Amino acid sequence: DEMVRKMGQAVGNDEGYEVRSPAGKYQTITFSSIRRVGAKAAARYAFLDNLFVIAFDQDSFEAILDVYLGEYPPLSYDPRFNKTRSGTSADGEVFVYVNMELLWPIAWSIWDSEFGMLLRMLGVDEIKSIAWTTSLLVPTRSQQAYLYTGDASGLITSILAEHESLLSPHVIPASNADIFLAANVGDPTLTWDKLGDAVKEFMGEDAH
């Protein structure tokens, strides 16, 4: 509990946090809660063997425990998750997975503007899921990201498709720069054609 209290304080709020331990029991698992002083909502957490689980509402917390107790299949049974996960290294200590098909409707309701229109024109909703991993124990803090587009064939998929190795690192002079960015868009003509198709589909033939 002291560890969780310190985690809450590390968020950077001087108001402090309240920890209840135990706060309740779900089936066979006793859980605790933490909340900011004065707030109504509280996060639930529990230690499950060597796992620390925390969720910000009761329904999400119980859904995680149901999987842990074997009542529902885990995420590792999802073919899309496994495909997306395989696109990154397994060496990182931190791993994030996002099912974008659940988030796009929310994103479009928020980005109901020119920015949102631009994203949709570019076909970013071809991205079905994202995996991101980073290694905290190496000096370079290496990171990897993988965007899964499935069987889509639009502009974004064309850009993200596997291409030949980049030639630019062999012609750029060595320097002390910390960041080097290069992109391979494959066949420029094909990519340009797909961009034109995306504009026509989004804006209509007349506007194009």
Polypeptide structure, described:
The protein is an alpha+beta fold. Helices cover 33% and strands 23% of the residues. It has seven helices and seven strands, in the order αββββααβααββαα. The strands form two sheets. The protein has a four-stranded antiparallel sheet, sandwiched between helices. A three-stranded antiparallel sheet has the order 5-6-7. Strand 1 (17-26) and strand 2 form a beta hairpin. The longest helix is centred in the C-terminal third of the chain and has 16 residues, at 188-203. The relative contact order is 0.08.
Provide the fold topology:
Layout: H1 2-9, E1 17-26, E2 29-36, E3 43-48, E4 51-55, H2 58-68, H3 79-85, E5 94-99, H4 100-110, H5 114-122, E6 129-134, E7 143-148, H6 155-160, H7 188-203
Antiparallel strand pairs: 1-2, 2-3, 3-4, 5-6, 6-7
Strand content: 15-25%
The chain-level mean pLDDT equals: 77
N-C termini distance:
61 Å
C-alpha Rg (nearest Å) = 23 Å
Number of strands: 7
> What is the H/E order?
HEEEEHHEHHEEHH
- Strand arrangement across the biggest beta sheet: 1-2-3-4
Low-pLDDT residue spans: none
Number of DSSP helical runs: 7
Task: State the shape.
Answer: extended
Report the major sheet. 4 strands, antiparallel
By oligomeric state, this entry counts as: single chain
Into which percent range does the helicity of residues fall? 25-40%
- Class by alpha and beta content: alpha+beta
